[in-house]
Structures are given as structure tokens and as C-alpha cells.
Design goal:
Chain lengths: ~130, ~130
Amino acid sequence: MRLTDKTDYALRVLMYLNQEKRLVTLNELAETLGVSKNNLIKISNHLAKVNFIDTIRGRSGGLLIKEETGRKSLKDIVISTEESFNIAECFSGRRCECFFLKKCLLKKGLNEALNAFMESLAQKTLNDVTIR
Amino acid sequence: MRLTDKTDYALRVLMYLNQEKRLVTLNELAETLGVSKNNLIKISNHLAKVNFIDTIRGRSGGLLIKEETGRKSLKDIVISTEESFNIAECFSGRRCECFFLKKCLLKKGLNEALNAFMESLAQKTLNDVTIR
């Protein structure tokens, strides 16, 4: 069981930007986090789209965290980056031939566990996991 | 975020065997669960190895659940089948160049969420999710 790399990188980018509270270049991020610039471009486009950061273009450009992003929960961030929470085949909505489809007690059990996971992430904000 | 197919299939095989409480052939399982015989052979070898089921070889052979397996928790089953619980890169123990490695509050947050997930699965037994 694993979060996607997109989520992993997004969390680290936000932690670093939230720690620095200044314009940070992609080069600095790539060096600091050990993540390729190519991946960072994709992540920063996404983070700007969901309004977690501002991006400033050009030679003296970079990424800047928005003030309110520090108060976002880890759940808010993970929900914005994970493609799906289809923890098993039958969660996907695609045709599934499983015998248990019509009455499955397991699906309910897995859903409860996933809710417990997300509820735990909802208890912590980005500020809580940022080192000052 | 998703469980491996191995875990998904193992849970369904155990649910069906626990419901039937009789020798079930691989052909019947393949037809009922919509899982290939090839995958079922791998899963049943694993489930026999960890003592959840007995396998009887030969023409009139098949799979039979062990009496005590119904009292196993979903956590016990998931732990036996998931390859890893490395929810992010830094959990894997492999060399990771992350800036936050030495002091990471996120890792603690993700660990707590994973524990909440497993704790929820620990509350339900195979019997609880088996339809009678």
C-alpha cells in the first residue's frame, strides 16, 4: 500500500515552501528534495491550479506558498493529489465480476479503514508538520 | 492508494472458502470470483503456507479453510499478503536524499494514519465479513 509519488513530492514541496516562506526556485527545490525538475514542474503546476501556491515566471521566478495553505490539513493535500482511493478492484466502479458484488461486507470494512486513515490525516495541518 | 491484487484476491478467496466450509476446487473459485486460475494457484500456495487453508492435491482435490482462520482479523490477512507498507519513499529504508530525512514530522503523521487504517482492520474478523 503506497501513496503515489505525486502525493509524496507535493507534500515535500509544500513542507519546504512553508518552511521558507519566500520565493524558491525549481533548481533549489530539485537540489534540496532530490526530485527531478521535470517532476517538480508537473507538481508545481498542479499545486498552483489548486491554489496552494503562486508561481512567478521568468528568470527571477519561482514558487511561493500562499499564506492560508499552512492551515490546510494533510487530508486536503492528499485528496488533491491522489488519483483515486479505489483500495480494491470493486471500488473503481468498473465492471467487476466478483461473486460478492451485490452484498459485500468486506467493502464496508475496507471503507471504514480508509476513513480512519483519512480522519487521521485530517487532524494534522501543513503547519503542524513544518519545522520552524 | 490501493491494496495489491494479491491482497484483494486473498481476501475474496478466504471469504468464499469461509462461507462454503467445504472442499472447493480452483475451477469453482475461478468461475465464482472472476480471478484467473493462474493467480488462484499463487494465492492458494501462499494461503496454505501461512496456514490459513489446507490444500488437497489430485483430481478430487481443492482448497479447504482451516477452522481457526475465520477468527483471524482483516489486519492479520492484509499483513500476510501486502509486500510492504512503505507508504512513501522514505519508509522503504532505501537511500533517500530528502532534505527532511533527519527530522521529518510528516513521516510521523503518515505513520499515525497507517496505524489508524490497520487498527480499523484489526477490529473485524474474517467471520465478521463472511455472509452466512
